[in-house]
Amino acid sequence: MPSSNPAGESTLNFTVDPNYSGKNLPGWFLMNTYLQRHLGQVMHFQPYDGFDVCRAAVLANQYDLVYANPFDWVQYVQKLDFVPIAKPRNHFDEVYLCTSAAVPIQDVADLPTRIRVASAHPATLIHMVGLFLLDKADIDRARLEFVFTGSYQGVLKAILQGQADVGFLFDEVYVGASGLIRDRLHIIDRSDDAFAFHAFCIGPRLLPQQELLTQVLCQMDQEARGQVLLQDIGFSGFAPVTDDEVACLTMLADEYISGHEAIDLRATSTLAIDDSAFVVAREDPDSGTK
Amino acid sequence: MAAKFMSTEWIRLVGKQWDTHPEIQKDLKNFNATWEYYIEDRPDIPHVMLFCKAGKVIYAGPSDGRRRDFIMWTNMDHWKKILSGEISGKSALMTRRLKFKGSMMTAMKYMTPFNIHLNILGEIPVDFNI
């Protein structure tokens, strides 16, 4: 729950998606200080190592500000009336399919019959898009055995230690990894959807300062201190989130989380697939499309 | 002469144009679905639809009452911008300038062919005076 310090001042609580608990964590502590100064309120920053524990803490109403992955922030909007206010500018969540550079897998086609897939968590956009990449490569899902690691650092470890043949890696984690680590990885495919994004979300206690906080975040790149901080946490700037974007990603997350996966319309189409029917249905069979 | 927008002639031309894009047929080789288009602010114009089976358009014509997997609609002004390429497919979807009913996951999974499909709509010389 939101806490008070000994002087009786209310303290705001801030956390970030667990994939930021790695390399750029010091930058997020400085981000906390930066926001605290601009809001004029004491803020406490608490990082987490795993998705489940972080999500549970936020859903237990312990936080006022969260920088969350898309499927989590949709939940916070729906369950806690959080409001997504800012997202990385010109930057979206993408997935890399990575293997160890030490194994002779250069392409999706080189994957073994039984494929051990390292993924941070099944309820993430990264997992969903990773599955899409394998679907597009005609990899039968029956071939997949998942190793859920709870974090992207765990995915890296599973790939590098040979516990997985391939991993679903959040692009920012790959880019933020050291050159030594990247040299030990091989990217066999990547998404380029530019569709979903992490976002800063505020809880009810911060709603009166929504406009101020949105402005502070979206104008960070216009002052020297903000520019340095943005560099530390790996972004060029932040932009406001629109209601339409929230609605669109909510549709997507609801569909995925509810388990209604229309992955292959061969199985899910409501239509009978009978060629003869379509010859009749076609308006002009002779000149029509084939 | 350009076909009237959202007419049977126009949607058939869209279906034929589809055949000239092998990349979309390849991307949609496992995809079977129907989808319908209409103009939000022109309720007098009948809806049209496409049926794609294994990447090929096998029906292009008036919406004939069969169940649709997807429905896409917006007002005439936004249709013009989408067909001219002024608004990309993804942007139209994300900003809901192109209204969409159906599986958002499927739309995201097939975002590249979705964009190609909107480009195909824009490749047909069209008359918006309807």
General description of the model:
Chain A is an alpha/beta fold. Helices cover 39% and strands 20% of the residues of chain A. Chain A has helices spanning 25-39, 51-59, 70-80, 125-136, 152-160, 171-176, 179-183, 210-218, 224-233, 243-257, 265-268, 275-281, and strands at 3-4, 10-16, 42-45, 65-68, 83-88, 95-100, 115-119, 144-148, 166-170, 185-190, 199-202, 238-240. Mean pLDDT of chain A is 86; it is low at 260-290. With 130 residues, chain B is of the alpha/beta class. Chain B has helices at residues 8-18, 22-27, 76-84, 89-94, 104-109, 111-123; strands at residues 3-4, 32-39, 48-53, 56-62, 70-74, 99-101, 126-127. In chain B, the strands form 2 sheets. Chain B has a 5-stranded mixed sheet. In chain B, strands 1-7 form a two-stranded parallel ribbon. Classes of the chains: A alpha/beta (290), B alpha/beta (130). At the A-B interface, helix 4, helix 10 and helix 12 of A face helix 1, strand 2, strand 4, helix 4 and helix 5 of B.
Please give the structural blueprint:
The complex is a heterodimer of chains A (290) and B (130).
Chain A: E1 3-4, E2 10-16, H1 25-39, E3 42-45, H2 51-59, E4 65-68, H3 70-80, E5 83-88, E6 95-100, E7 115-119, H4 125-136, E8 144-148, H5 152-160, E9 166-170, H6 171-176, H7 179-183, E10 185-190, E11 199-202, H8 210-218, H9 224-233, E12 238-240, H10 243-257, H11 265-268, H12 275-281
Parallel strand pairs in A: 2-3, 2-4, 7-8, 7-9
Antiparallel strand pairs in A: 1-2, 4-11, 5-11, 5-12, 6-9, 6-10
Helix pairs in contact in A: 1-9
Chain B: E1 3-4, H1 8-18, H2 22-27, E2 32-39, E3 48-53, E4 56-62, E5 70-74, H3 76-84, H4 89-94, E6 99-101, H5 104-109, H6 111-123, E7 126-127
Parallel strand pairs in B: 1-7, 2-5
Antiparallel strand pairs in B: 2-3, 3-4, 5-6
Helix pairs in contact in B: 1-6
Shape of chain A: globular
Cα-atom Rg of chain B, whole angstroms? Answer: 13 Å
Q: What share of the residues of chain B does DSSP label as strand, in percent?
A: 25-35%
Helix percent of chain B reads 25-40%
How far do the termini of chain A sit from each other? 62 Å
The number of helical elements of chain A comes to: 12
- For the biggest β-sheet of chain B, the strand order reads 4-3-2-5-6
Distance between the termini of chain B: 14 Å
